[in-house]
Amino acid sequence: MDYLVLFCIGVTATTIGTLAGGGGLISLPAMLMLGMPIHSAIGANKVSNMVSSFSSFFTLFRRKQITLKESFWLVPFSLGGGVTGGVIAAQLSSESLYIVAVILLAFAFGTSFIGKGGFSGTEPLKLTPVSGPGLFGIGIYDGLFGPGQGTLMLYLFSYLNIAYVKSVGLVRLATFSSCFGAAISYILSGAIIWPLTLALMAGSVTGAQLGVRIAEKLRPDYVKPILRVVTALLIVQLIADNVM
């Protein structure tokens, strides 16, 4: 029964995560409620995210929605930011991490109402004084805390006037990059419960493909409202978790 539940969790969390980010705040609490040890749950999340993120990126790359030239330079920025964030996280309390997460998500939520971007643009991703530091900064956040990383990146790409489907592919590549090192670490540590992880992974890959297909049909003017709803829910859950 747990395998079926984990498969459904993977489908739901990754579909939502592909469209608007925030999938980790669905899958991780659900796995903990099923009784998985915390390190095994986080490890399962990282392994499944690594595989599902690459599958959705590769699907969009194969359909020529995204090119290697404009996408692969973001990998070192995401990796470098993630490593930096991991180092900083070791020096901060969990309460401080929650405060940072809420402030960043609230800032993104507020700017979504005044930002010029709306995912209807046709600009390629280029290294600029905004894109480079932005990707590195979000990478730091991912290494510091993580939940909401994909949502913040979508806000960044919206500001950069990049089309929504292309933005989804870029976010998934960045997520693959940031999860890769963490997944390897959890595998080597022996924390992975493989039968449960594989069930979650199967659901995540299914959800990633479902999310990509929905994204290709989603009208750009619907994306910002969806992002705002997800962001508001992320903020509420983070505050509730910290209070409890």
UniProtKB/TrEMBL annotation:
It is a multi-pass membrane protein. The chain crosses the membrane at residues 72-90, 96-115, 127-146. It is found in: Cell membrane. InterPro entries: TM_pro_TauE-like, TSUP. GO terms for cellular component: plasma membrane. It comes from the Bacteria. Its main location: membrane. Keywords: Cell membrane, Membrane, Transmembrane, Transmembrane helix, Transport. It holds the Pfam family TauE. Belongs to the 4-toluene sulfonate uptake permease (TSUP) (TC 2.A.102) family. This is Probable membrane transporter protein. It comes from Planomicrobium soli.
